[in-house]
Amino acid sequence: MATTTARPAALDPHQHLAHEARLTVDDRRELMRYMLLMRATEERALNLYRQGKVPGSFYDGRGQEAVSVGSAFALSPRDRACILHRDLGAHLLRGVRPGLVLAQMMGRAGGLTGGRDGNMHFGDKDLGCVGMVSMLPDMALVACGLGLAFQMRKEPRVAMTWFGDGSTANGQWHEAMNVAGVRKLPVVFVLENNQYAYSTPNSREFVVDPIERAAAYGFHGVKVNGNDVEAVLRASAEACERARQGGGPTLIEAETMRMHGHGAHDDMSYVPPEMLEEWSQRDPIETYEARLRDAGRVDLDALREEVKAELDSETDWALAQEMPDPSTATGGVFATEDPVMGDGKAPWSRWAQEASNA
Amino acid sequence: MPEITYLEAISDGLREEMRRDESVFCMGEDIGEFGGAFKVTDGFFEEFGADRVWDTPLAENAIVGAAVGAAVEGLRPVCEMQFADFIACGFDQLVNVAGKMYYRQGLAVPMVVRLPSGGGFSGGPFHSQNPEAWFLQSPGLKVVAPSTAEDAKGLLASAIRDPNPVLYLEHKNLYRRVKGDVPEGRYETPMGELRVAREGTDLTVVSYGAMVHTALEATEDIDGASIEVLDLRTLCPLDRDGILESVRKTSKVVVLHEATRSCGVGAEVSSLIAEEAFEDLDGPVVRVTAPDVPIPFSPPLERAVLPQVDDVRKACHDLLAY
Amino acid sequence: MPQMGVSVAEGTITAWRKRPGDWVERDEVIVEISTDKVETEVPSPAAGRVAELVVEEGATVDVGTLLATIDTGSKPGQPHADESDPPPPAEEAEANGNGKAPPVSPVVRRIADEHSVELSAVSGTGRRGRVTKKDLLAFLEQGAAKPAERPLHIESPYKEEPAPQPATPAEAAPTGEGERLSVMRRQIGEHMVRSLHEAAHCTTIVEADMTAIEAARGRLSYLPLVARATIAALREHPRLNATLEGDRLTVHDEVHLGIAVSLGEEGLIVPVVRNAHELSHEGLGARIKDLAARARSKQLSPDEVGGATFTITNPGRYGALLATPIINQPQVAILDLEAVVKRPVVVTDGQGGDSIAIRPMTYFCMSWDHRALDGVGAAEFLGSVKRHVEGWSD
């Protein structure tokens, strides 16, 4: 009972959404704003790193903004997310302030883990996010567990998780895919195929196109242009709907390119320059900006100004945060109360409509 | 009060919790209609249904990882590893995801992983382990190891209520060999508190799990000495005060465990005593453990490796004479 | 039972030459037997340890009957079953620091420190003679569990005997090796051992010039004069005139002076000169003479052997120079007067000039209880005794 895998239609910037993912002008503005915010936050963080204010390593998702923003945009407030290190857009969409992200990276007490974990290893539980671990793709299994809870309680909620191409070589990814397929869990697996796992190109990572594997595990898979935020959104919205209605998991393979090194310490000299050149022509922000300008309904300059001003004040705030008190290092290993997860923000107008219709 | 086996007590405890709280559910291999490899969940499928008694695929990381996700969303999963040895296949999720989650994220993970542990029946190297030491080294995980039927039921209830990941070591060799009076209905045995299995004044044997019974048998009469036997019950958090109180009384200590020697509970307890009760010692702290070998299969080899009653008797005798 | 001749059917055990536990060499005579033909010694068929004598002396059994069993797997030198391990040699307990002494465990060290116990006074039952926690606690309990006594009456080695005791069967029938100690000996021994266990014995020795005493004593023994000097010193250093029970020290106003009296081979006894501080040396001399005479004729009353606050022992006439006496419990010190010997000594005249003189010198040897005193206190007291002795004037 293998299902067929869908292939993306050719992109038509003026095409109306054939699908239910209807977008207002404000939605489009929001999509753009979150991509800009992600890029601006990461650029600012990289500066701080180069200024010696960020201990340890620094990772960003430059060039992949459409993937996390597009996919997370489809989530409702009560959905849950296991976000990875190139998906800052998802954190911001759920409601995390850029300042908190910067404080987290700088190891400040006011950051999201109080200095207990670094770089992108965070998840604001009050916004319905579970923070990642370094071992990948462990969070795929955690997402299955979240989906399991929704299924058992018969709730129309979705767990979304991201991971890269390299993860698909790992046993835990296969366990996650298998378990999700066997129980038809309401999980959306977003595979960011950014062509490289550190220095390892896909050709050395696997011989089967990852999207084929969805069928192998018995569920729907779709490959999209990962640099087209609305394409990513459409595929994600569809996947979420499927999950909510008991149709089981979906694997979305978003094709994109990692424009920076694995981390700031990596000069990515193993990437052929022409490949980078080609992908830079398809920059998700620039291409979406061009489309929006054509449509003429969004004041992009004002938007950029707004994002810059926000980053300025957020950076000031983050820099003012204190380093953690060393005497707190050994506390807080064991919980004394049960977990409470909060709901995230959901800027898609659809949710506001549904809430007002309810 | 009915007398039931250790196995029945575990079943009882689990059933009571599942009846009382809908968010408690079981996941593991062959635990559904089959009732589990050791029949702990016998009858559960019929009573609670497929959703709450989930026959998972053969994937330990998936079991543990999915449990984490379910737990943070407010459910209370009780995972079963078919044999404790197989926790190695779920080690990453347990140590890196479950164990570290609260410290890093402030997100509690209330889950239990049941581990049928221990040897003594020709299980061989992969069905006989006592892997607790790995997890005593991993911050964020609690570890319990009941030795009596009564504690088996009560500790399971406590483990399920605890908002942290708890490893529950149920010794396979005790399943049907140990019986006890077990109160009906639901009760919790406190974690982090040891039990004095026998009071004494001349020497203390510190033990847990199946070895508590070995210790009691071995120390019934050694030259008429009065020997105290402690049942730790919880390995993390360790009842340090309880141990030290006994050391102050008897000044001679034998630590006994079935797990292998190096860096085990024996090493931890010895070190604790040396640091905190040095001036109460009237002799060296002695360990009786399995040596650092995989547990062999053939009975004479297995018996030579697992601590026997005579090994304990000799160690106590020698220490008494010191 | 061996076949001793073709027609012999039985034999009698006349005497076993070995008992169970003894080692017997091959061919060594193990038993004497007699038959109607001959009396003979039987050599052992094997070397080993005699395990059991199956047939007893005097019994007659058929030829071929098992007479005894020998354990051929044992080694010579192992103790008999009824022999206990010899106590660890005393040197081991005292030789701390030479690397061969048994270790002092942390808990034993701590408890000993807390109670100021000298571990050499505690007998150890642990491995290598180690003092175990149990040994030490038992030792402390002994000290603490002494019966509550009225302060001025103490146990004495002397027990009034109403009549000569008939020899009890146990004492009349020796086990074969030596004779049992007399009651007095045992009691003296018990008191001495107990004293050594309980008190932290130290001995301080001071040398004194007896010239003045010799000039003053005439035909008297010097004991009463030294006793008088001692009493004077006790008034100056009252802490030496004290009794210690448990951790309760009682300093006494009156000096009740115990004087050790030898009863020859029987033992010794310590009659007490009560209120000795009220007596002159002549008075002391008279009282001591009287007490000693009545002690030797066993005419002392129990009241006269209890309640001493200080003891003097004086075996000096036998020529010994130094001694380390054992404290008479529950007092805190005992003074031993040894021989007075003429020796060349350095004397300093009034101008500070030194010369050699022949003087009658003696050593005052005092054992004292470190639980109650320190070395300084002991030395000061002895210094006072010496001063009174050397500066003696009537």
In whole angstroms, the N-to-C terminal distance of chain C is: 87 Å
Please identify the structural class of chain A as seen in this structure: alpha/beta
**Share of residues in helices of chain A:** 40-55%
The profile of the biggest β sheet of chain C is:
6 strands, mixed
The portion of residues forming beta strands of chain C comes to 15-25%
Q: How would you characterize this protein structure?
A:
The complex is a heterotrimer of chains A (358), B (322) and C (394). Chain A has 13 helices and eight strands. Chain A has helices spanning 25-50, 65-72, 88-94, 98-105, 138-152, 171-183, 202-205, 212-216, 229-244, 273-280, 284-295, 300-320, 349-357; strands spanning 80-82, 129-130, 159-164, 187-193, 196-197, 200-201, 220-225, 250-255. Chain B is built from eleven helices and 14 strands. Chain B has helices spanning 6-20, 44-52, 60-72, 91-105, 132-136, 149-161, 210-218, 240-250, 265-276, 299-305, 309-321; strands spanning 3-5, 24-28, 53-55, 76-80, 112-117, 142-144, 166-171, 179-181, 195-198, 203-207, 227-231, 234-236, 253-260, 286-290. The model of chain B has no long low-confidence stretch (mean pLDDT 96). Chain C is α+β, with helices and mostly antiparallel strands. In chain C, the strands form five sheets. In chain C, strands 8-17-16-15-11-14 form a six-stranded mixed beta sheet. A four-stranded antiparallel beta sheet of chain C has the order 4-3-1-6, with no helix packed on it. A three-stranded antiparallel beta sheet of chain C has the order 2-5-7, with no helix packed on it. The longest helix of chain C is centred in the middle third of the chain and has 16 residues, at 183-198. The radius of gyration of chain C is 30 Å and the shape is elongated. Chains in contact: A-B, B-C. At the A-B interface, helix 5 and helix 6 of A face helix 3 and helix 4 of B.
